[in-house]
Each structure stands twice: as structure tokens, then as C-alpha cells.
Design brief:
The protein has helices at 2-19, 94-105, 149-155, 185-189; strands at residues 30-34, 56-61, 69-72, 78-81, 84-88, 114-120, 128-133, 139-142, 168-172, 179-183, 205-208. Helix content is 20%, strand content 26%. A six-stranded mixed beta sheet has the order 1-10-9-11-7-8, covered by helices on one side. A three-stranded antiparallel beta sheet has the order 3-2-6, covered by helices on one side.
């Protein structure tokens, strides 16, 4: 009896451990509600900010101060800078626009190096992050490259006392491409759990429900 007790006990423990194998850790956007069989946010960081009409830009040309300027994107989406007229800017990232300006300046300047900075955003709906529900100040915020859920929540003043922050949802995309994820805003804002912080993308919508209790 004593000789078989230990193997039987080990077998029992092995069977138990097989039942409680730890689940893979989910990303901060976890618990997919629609359309994402993996239950996690995509790994890529999403698109950069796209320049839009009425955005104010700083165009800096290295070692050519006379070609550097501040300019506002016209309603038709174009800009004009020294030696570059009617360049289409809307719909491009700042880096793409800088490359296009470099190409245009190459006719006049040897190996131009251009940097474009968006000084003031006047984003369209597709370039905004909208927060609805139990935020202190529900609002639509202009997207900025590298923006996170924490940045968004600080921009709307945080959660109300009635917010069910850990039941908040982030809706991304439209139509058949739409995905919904759970975001742990209570853990992030009230517990300081930085693992609940994730990057947002242009067009994201965050819905914060009211607590049932």
C-alpha cells in the first residue's frame, strides 16, 4: 500500500495541474466583444496622425532658415512654402509631407533635409478620440502620435464617482472591420496600474458605463 500511495498521489497532482494550467496573459486591451477571435488588440501601434485642413505646421529646412516657415493648411488641403507652391498636405503624415517637400526642394537645394511639425491640430472626426459616458468631461480630443488611454482620460478629467471603469469599452474601426475591446480604466486611473495603459488610434471611441451599484 505504501509503495503505490506516492505514485497515485503524484498522478493526482499532475491531473490537477493539467486542469489549472495558467491562461496566456492578455494585453491591456483584453476581452474582445466582437470580431477578434484572439481577444487581444493588434500588435501594431496604428497609424500616425494625418495632416488635415486648418492644421498649423512648422516647416523647418536644415541650414536654410530662409526656406523654413510656419504655415496653415488651406481648406483645399494644400500649403505653399518658399520655393514650393500648392503642395498637397492633407492626408499625409508629417514625415511623408517632409519627404515630399524635400523632393520639391531638391531642384533648388542640394540634399535638403526637412522636418514638419504639427503645431496646432484641427482634426476631423476620423482623427479624433471620442469619450462618452461617465467621464468628468466627455469630449472629442484631437489624436496625437503616441497618444495613450491615460492621455485621453487626463484630457477628459478622469472618471466620475459613478463610473464602472473596468467595464469600459474601446470601439475601433467601422462596419465589418469594427472591433470592441475592454479597457481597465479603474485599474489605470484609481489603482495606478500602468499595465492597463495602451496606445489609442485615430477614430477610437471609449464608452464608460455607469456602475450598477
Amino acid at each position: 500500500m505504501k509503495k503505490t500511495a506516492l505514485p497515485l498521489a503524484l498522478a493526482g497532482l499532475l491531473g490537477l495541474s493539467a486542469c489549472v494550467t495558467p491562461q496566456p496573459e492578455l494585453s491591456s486591451l483584453d476581452g474582445s466583444v466582437t470580431g477578434n477571435s484572439e481577444g487581444e488588440a493588434p500588435d501594431d501601434l496604428g497609424p500616425e496622425y494625418l495632416v488635415g485642413p486648418y492644421d498649423q505646421l512648422q516647416v523647418f529646412v536644415w541650414r536654410a532658415e530662409e526656406l523654413s516657415t510656419d504655415v496653415t493648411v488651406r481648406p483645399d488641403g494644400r500649403i505653399s512654402t518658399p520655393l514650393v507652391e500648392d503642395m498637397l498636405a492633407a492626408g499625409k503624415t508629417p514625415s511623408e509631407l517632409a519627404q515630399d517637400i524635400e523632393a520639391a526642394l531638391a531642384e533648388y537645394v542640394k540634399t535638403p533635409e526637412v522636418t514638419v511639425i504639427v503645431d496646432r491640430f484641427s482634426s476631423t472626426v476620423d482623427q479624433q478620440i471620442r469619450v462618452l459616458g461617465e467621464a468628468q468631461q466627455p469630449a472629442a480630443l484631437p489624436y496625437q502620435s503616441g497618444m495613450t488611454v491615460l492621455d485621453v482620460m487626463l484630457g477628459v478629467g478622469g472618471l466620475t464617482e459613478f463610473a464602472a471603469g473596468n467595464r469600459a469599452k474601446l470601439i475601433r474601426g467601422r462596419g465589418e472591420e469594427q472591433r470592441t475591446y475592454r479597457v481597465r480604466l479603474n485599474d489605470l486611473m484609481r489603482q495606478g496600474d500602468v499595465s492597463a495603459n495602451v496606445e489609442v488610434r485615430p477614430g477610437d471611441v471609449i464608452l464608460i458605463p455607469e456602475s450598477r451599484f
